[in-house]
Write a structure and sequence with these properties.
The structure holds two protein chains of two kinds. Chain A is an alpha/beta fold. Chain A is built from ten helices and four strands. Chain A is about 50% helix and about 10% strand. A four-stranded parallel beta sheet of chain A has the order 2-1-3-4, sandwiched between helices. In chain A, β1, α5 and β2 form a beta-alpha-beta unit. The longest helix of chain A is centred in the last third of the chain and has 19 residues. Chain B has three domains: about 80 residues, Orthogonal Bundle (Fumarate Reductase Iron-sulfur Protein, Chain B, domain 2), CATH 1.10.1060.10; about 150 residues, Rossmann fold (3-Layer(aba) Sandwich); about 120 residues, 3-Layer(aba) Sandwich (Rossmann fold). Chain B is globular and about 65 Å long. Chains A and B meet through α6, α7 and α10 of A and α8 and α9 of B. Bound molecules: iron/sulfur cluster (2 copies) and FE2/S2 (inorganic) cluster. The site of one iron/sulfur cluster has 16 residues of chain B, from α2 and α4.
Chain lengths: ~220, ~400
């Protein structure tokens, strides 16, 4: 899983600007542990990390506008480009929002409307689908299928009254770590601005992981 | 995998299972059993009675709940009720259905249980259709807008039926209430075992119709109709309004309608299970077609003996479903009619899907139309009248 990358990158940012620490503290639980590490780090290491970060052109992520709402975002990324793009973002230690769960699919063309609807049913506030650029799909035209499926999902969600900004389709190659981070940041902000999904079941009714996939497990039996 | 949830003798008794004579009429009338040799309602009943072996999750999803077996059973065994009860009892544990379309339909239905929904359901209402917001008579449109958005590659037009129904009501001088916040009736959740979510939908629908002062609700989709009629009362008590299928309404008042005189095309009619066998509405659609001057060529098996479209509430779709559909289409073609008229959006979707088989090509292709759209298109000068009055209103 990729999300922890965001977290480690957050640690870098802390070391970069100790003065802003107080402000950054508001960022909440996601960076709490990272901060602890940052404070403990000896000055020499801090400086080294700072140098490394600036050498790689790491960006500092904007502080979230509001503290309260942390969106629940599901990202479907294709195995060959976008998932590797997320890895690139992590390996290059780019700091970006950690508020997403990534699900690897073999190709973006696999993302049937059912996947996205299911994500919303299980409480997602936004869903991002990401695949290879046109011409790069490892299954030749898988991403063209992805567009068709995505359009269909969009039409269904429109009737359902879901804001268009809650879903997004992106093409991110394995080399585009920076783009991956940017897209995630943008999307998280976009969904944050829209607020919690009205379709999400109340927190207490959200199924636990085992429960949510009971039917899948039953099929596998 | 064996279904392990204990189902007590009561369930079997309620379905009259103990009355089974093992005559095998159910299996010989079951369209699925004809192709799927490992499936037999008779055997499932005798196993449940004898050794206590209950149908497996897979067997539970295979049954179309088309009720053809119950129709023929000389002993009054309700096999369909048994299947439904077993699905409910094992839902979430063993049984989940082999949900066709990746479970998209189930997700849509569950999403519609949300309290706050801003649906844009009425995008299909064109200028010439007269509808209102508050009133005594409501029209329940059902999920046709979702179907048309989802089954784009099949090029189905299930909304045509809904539009046709509103046109017919307008022609009868009714301006039906159309609720933009209407939910799915929950039929497929109920038959798929998810009773909790079905009940949520049922309560919401009844509430929102009641809030609009509705005294009678008219349906185009037979599944919505039968679900309101038979299953909502179990959730909300006696319904605060009457329910009627559009074909019943039009058949009763066909004399008031003015149809074009020319000879109509010859059609054949696919009776939906929920309309013919479950709700017992067999004559009304035929009367409506006759009133509109449409010649009907019946298929070999029609009315209560009609063959299901093998739709199965989005629970299962396998090669046997396909065989059933092909058999039905061949039967429809054998009537010599050019058009197959259906009264259920799901019949349209499933038979259209089977028709798209590239290997069979023209052998099974046919025009397909919804009953109400076929009849509404034969109304005399209706479009003129409606237009005139809608401009008056403005
Ligand atoms: S309900 Fe239909 S599919 Fe199920 S056993 Fe009876 S005849 Fe067969
Ligand atoms: S038709 Fe009725 S009595 Fe005959 S085997 Fe089937 S369930 Fe039993
Ligand atoms: S493999 Fe990446 S989109 Fe098809």
């Amino acid at each position: 899983m990729t999300p922890p990358k965001g977290k480690s990158a957050a640690a870098e940012a802390e070391t970069k600007a100790p003065a802003k620490k107080a402000k950054a503290r508001k960022k909440g639980a996601a960076t709490a542990s990272a901060k602890a590490t940052a404070q403990k780090a000896p000055p020499a290491r801090r400086a080294r990390a700072k140098k490394a970060a600036s050498a790689q052109g790491t960006r500092r992520v904007e502080k979230p506008a509001r503290e309260g709402f942390i969106p629940r975002i599901v990202v479907f990324a294709c195995n060959w480009c976008s998932y590797a793009g997320a890895d690139t973002a992590g390996v290059s230690r780019i700091q970006y929002s950690p508020h997403f769960r990534i699900i690897r699919v073999m190709c973006s063309g696999r993302v049937h409307p059912a996947f996205i609807l299911r994500a919303f049913e299980l409480g997602a506030d936004g869903v991002l689908v990401s695949g290879c650029h046109f011409g790069d799909c490892h299954y030749i035209f898988g991403n063209e299928r992805a567009v068709e499926q995505f359009e269909k999902t969009k039409a269904l969600l429109k009737i359902l009254g879901v804001e268009e900004g809650r879903i997004r389709l992106e093409w991110i190659s394995a080399a585009e770590g920076v783009k991956f981070a940017r897209v995630i940041d943008e999307f998280v902000e976009q969904v944050r601005a829209l607020g919690p999904s009205k379709l999400a079941p109340p927190e207490r009714e959200l199924p636990q992981k085992a429960e949510a996939f009971a039917d899948v497990a039953a099929l596998a039996k | 995998m064996e279904a392990t949830t204990p189902v007590d003798a009561r369930t079997l008794r309620e379905a009259n299972a103990f009355l089974c004579l093992e005559c095998g009429k159910c299996t010989s009338s079951c369209v699925v059993a004809r192709y799927n040799r490992s499936y037999s309602p008779r055997r499932l009943i005798s196993q449940a009675l004898g050794g206590g072996r209950l149908p497996t999750a897979n067997e539970l999803s295979i049954c179309l709940t088309c009720m053809a077996c119950d129709e023929r059973c000389p002993s009054g065994v309700h096999f369909v009720d048994l299947i439904r009860e077993l699905r409910r009892a094992t839902y979430g544990a063993e049984f989940a259905g082999n949900c066709s379309h990746g479970g998209a339909m189930q997700s849509l239905m569950k999403l519609m249980t949300a309290d706050e929904l801003n649906q844009e359901r009425l995008g299909w209402v064109t200028e010439d259709l007269k509808i209102t917001d508050q009133g005594e008579v409501a029209f329940f449109a059902g999920c046709a807008p979702y179907f048309d958005a989802f089954f784009t590659e099949l090029e189905v037009d299930t909304l045509a039926g809904v539009k046709g129904a509103v046109k017919m009501l307008n022609a009868l001088g009714l301006e039906p209430v159309l609720a933009p916040d209407e939910r799915c009736c929950g039929h497929d959740l109920l038959w798929g075992g998810d009773v909790a979510n079905f009940e949520r939908l049922a309560r919401k629908n009844v509430e929102l119709l009641k809030a609009r002062g509705v005294k009678a609700v008219i349906f185009n989709c037979p599944e919505c109709y039968y679900t309101f009629k038979a299953d909502y009362a179990k959730v909300v008590g006696t319904l605060p309004f009457k329910v009627k299928h559009i074909s019943e309404v039009v058949a009763e008042r066909a004399g008031e309608l003015n149809f074009v005189d020319d000879e109509g095309e010859k059609v054949t009619f696919q009776d939906p299970c929920r309309l013919a066998r479950f709700a017992g509405v067999v004559e009304a659609p035929r009367q409506v077609l006759a009133a509109a001057g449409v010649e009907l060529a019946e298929m070999a098996r029609s009315g209560k003996g009609a063959v299901c479209c093998a739709g199965n509430g989005w629970l299962n779709c396998d090669r046997f479903s396909k065989e059933v559909q092909l058999e039905r289409l061949r039967e429809a073609r054998a009537t010599g009619a050019a058009t197959l008229v259906t009264a259920c959006p799901k019949c349209e979707i499933h038979l259209r899907c089977a028709m798209n088989d590239p290997n069979l090509g023209d052998e099974i292709k046919m025009e397909m139309r919804d009953l109400t759209s076929a009849v509404a298109s034969r109304l005399n000068g209706e479009s003129k009248e409606v237009k005139a009055s809608s401009t008056e209103e403005k």
